[in-house]
Amino acid sequence: MQLEIQSHTAGDVVVVRCRGRIVSGDESRHLQGEIEKLTRLTKSVVLNLGEVSYLDSGGLGALVRTLGVLRGARGDLKICQVSPFIEQVMQATNLIKVFQPCASEEEAVAAFASRSGPAQEPSLPSAPRIVCLDASPDVLAYLKILLQGSGYEVFTTRYLSDAVSLAVGTKPRLLVCGPSWHGNAAAADKFRESAPAVQLLHLPADFSTSEADQASRTLVDRVRSIVAV
Questions:
Q1: Is 52 in contact with 19 (CB distance < 8 Å)?
Q2: What distance in Å separates the CA atoms of residue 13 and residue 11, rounded to the nearest whole number?
Q3: Domain residues for 217?
Q4: pLDDT in tens, 91-122
Q5: What stretches of the chain show up as alpha helix (H) in DSSP?
Q6: What is the domain count for the chain?
Q7: Are 104 and 15 contained in the same domain?
Q8: What is the mean pLDDT of residues 77-98?
Q9: Which of the listed residues 114, 147, 174 is the one where a domain comes to its end?
């Protein structure tokens, strides 16, 4: 089902109701574009997911990126009425603590009046470091918050040259190459030449469109097996 979006305001909060699927591609871009237009006057957004039937890794990445953009603008994103499926996905990806879903629109709107500001992620100076490389800001946002929630210090970039610089400057244990770099042997060879001590993990080409809970479990398990060596 194509994603349908309806919105209204409740005071200085924008409430966005979604119906259908939030998946990588047109649906995610449509949602982000609508939120961008709606938040020109307010950065306080409630996202009602009560009629969202499916959420893949790319769609979840879009939500994470939207959350980051709004918090960077001193706003916030609250989600509400999540289905058991969406709750399961967020539990599996450790994002339930980040989004803290509300039971209803009214509760989510009221949370803006009482909030003291978004919680800050604790710094992890001694955590194993990981660099993530992908062309998609949504994928990078998803990888960063997923791996941070699993106890790693994460750096992200869309450019190979920056990934090389980060590898030299931060001395990570691992480079995670996102789906946009899948099969790019030349890029992998260039990185290995510049940072031979860093392990490489290539995500499959269908990572963004795969089931978010299974994809996240598989990724975290693979990262742990590599970093533990």
A1: yes
A2: 6
A3: 129-227
A4: 988 899 899 999 999 999 999 987 555 444 44
A5: 26-38, 57-72, 84-92, 96-99, 105-114, 137-149, 160-170, 185-194, 212-227
A6: 2
A7: yes
A8: 91
A9: 114
